[in-house]
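The data are passed on as follows:
___
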Amino acid sequence: PGAIRNICKAMELSVGDFKLVLELRAGEDYSESWKKDLKPIAINKDFIIAPSWWTEPLAADKNAKVLRLDPGSAFGSGHHPTTYMCLKALSDLSLEANHPASILDLGAGSAVLALASALMFPQGRFAAIDNDPETSFAAKSNLALNNLADKIEHQIASIEEIDGPFDLIVANLTRNTLVALAKQMALKTKTPGKLILSGLIEEQVADVVKAFGALGFHPVRHLSMAEWSALLLSNAAHAGSKPVKELVEEPRWEDDQDPAQDEPNGDASGADDTGDAGDTGRRDALKSKSLSSSSEPGQ
């Protein structure tokens, strides 16, 4: 019951929305059984995220970059819609002429977004922070697994403690946490600079746009996957109109599919908590915590 209350608090839902059923199955190792449904995903035709234990062939293109990941007890395998939309936004930025030279993964969890950034923008400076010490082992293990421990600065710290500013901050959190950290995020962002914000359900987008709009940021993109939304914001001079909502498709990985042949546009599967076998529960519990040293309003 306590875990359910924490999840509801993090996602700003009512406990009455859930019916808890506990079923124990003899002979099943739950610490390992969740892995069987976690398959690789192709972010684009040249970039694949695969579980560290996956042994089957991944891509026909030998030049494709492969990020190996074991989320452990931390949130972040890349499958959950909130994480996947961040990865898609990063992927799209990698196609632009001007790449961000410094990137902060705020609320890093497994460090999947920092790791992906380091592979997509190899010439940059990267930092990953989280305020939950329990995520440290998974994050540092993944940095070592991908030979990026020397490339990414990882800390258990609040945003106030990290040296900035950054060209890009990626934050997959919750509405209340994003709003509470808006001023600190603005201070840690260069001008011109960008923010990728995720972890929002559709009706929360306006609140986040308003909070960051008061600090000089405007929405450039609005990604949508089922009931989830992600935003790309910029503090550069703006004369454009409100961005059209972009629907993102569900990532697919069929055993007989060559990921280099079919580039998915996203993940629409997370609304019913089936979009990420490893992420959903961890995300709800871990992201309930503020990443600032100050208390978060309403939490």
The first strand starts at residue 41 and ends at 44.
